[in-house]
Amino acid sequence: MIDATHIDDNLKVVIRQVPTKTDELPILLLLSSPSLQADPRNCTVPILDIIILPGNDDTALIVMPMLRDFGNLTFRRVGEVVEMFEQLVHFLAFLHDQNISHMDFCWFNIMMDGSRVVPKGWHFFDQLSHDGISIGGFEWVDRWSVRPVKYYVIDFELSQRMKSKDSPRLFVGSWGQDRTVPEMSMTTPSDPFKVDVYQLGNVIKKLMTNYIGLDILKPLVDAMTNPDPRGRLTAQESSKQFSILRKKCSTRVMKRRIWRNEPPLPPLTSLERFFVKHFRYNPIN
Fold this sequence. Notes:
globular; 13 strands; ATP binding; protein kinase activity; Kinase-like_dom_sf; alpha+beta; Protein kinase domain-containing protein
């Protein structure tokens, strides 16, 4: 994966290698079709171009806009998290409506369009630097001040499209970043659609752990991360329950400040103290 610049309009893009033997490319092409792109729930990362490599049938290159990790800039208001959750939960229902299970709907596969949040732009490999060289002086604005912020889901490498709603939808093994899914097993099949719901719920649960002031989301998140998949909400149910929750979120609630819940840091080791003193090393990062 590498960053690049689209010459015609100076757009920052990312070029990624995709194996042609998986379902990733056909799924991305389907989700990027005009009819599905017209659905406002669709948060699939846009595919700007596909580059076929001469003499190579195993790999193709896809070109995407350069996006930011969603979580490395601080959330400051309830509404900022609600806005993200709203887009993602409706997208998951949309995805399942197409009989597609993402199978890795996890933290590092959720991105944001940071063009208005970071007007000066950022470096691909150092997202807290404008140019990848300068240290400090990184400028950004609250998401709330430039809302709505658009979120996207990437990495469909593990994704599967079922033939129909009636076809078997069970898989064995572990997949994706989140290894806390209770029903994942090397011997007992699990429903990947229910796993998707758990994974998204767990992303929001992690945010609720990282920030103080998001208790309003707890009932829905608990229902999405129910340890028993039979009692867990489906994506469609989660989407409907969120719509009910959203109606309860007044402007006052949405503007309410939230704060990072940062536990005390452990004492630095002697080696860390050496690096802090001589190399501006930050043990938090």
